[in-house]
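Fig. S4 source data, part A: sequence.
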Amino acid sequence: MKRQIIALGGGGFSMEPDNLALDRYILSQSSEDEPRVCFIPTASGDSEDYIQRFYKAFHQLPCKPGHLSLFEPSFLSLRDFVMEQDILYVGGGSTRNMLALWREWKMDNILAEAYRNGVILAGLSAGANCWFEEGLTDPLNGPLYAINGLGFLSGSVCPHFDGEAKRRPSYLEAVGGGSMKEGYGVDDYAALHFVNEQLSRAVCSRKGAAVYKINRQEDGSSEEAIPTAYLN
């Protein structure tokens, strides 16, 4: 069973409502003509506005959209609901609060099972952080810090690598100093596509958006640009 994760640094319907190239790319990885794609907005506290923006975008695309709320559950069995989906698309917000709630609901175990069974996992920002061993997150008005993810992918990730001024230097310092594992810096409007835990492809919806492999060196860290395909 092929396992797939698509991690966006930023972009997609929530940042580019007039350019759904990354969302189309996610859908195109399913073998279904109209895949069932489930938006998971836990990190935003199930923001109603966020949910409605998802539906507005995905009703334009060849899929069957739905969403999963842990604040106002509409399912009888969380596991059964998740396992019925073809794609799980995790939104941005607070990585820490999202993971805490997921673990309370045993959602981490359910997602691991879904992943093993071929359900495509995707997401941006917090929805990218969660799939790695570590992600760089930023509380409002606080310093950036590393947070443990679900560990489906090895290493670390920094979304919004170019989108927020403090992201890049904080991540490079953390990797170089050994407080975070080596990993990937992902610009807004760019994404990493993993197949069976190996990086298969990097794509972007805007020219110039990039992805970098961040490695530790004796004197700090290094950035290696990864070839990124423009989706036009």
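Fig. S4 source data, part B ends here. The first strand starts at residue 4 and ends at 8.
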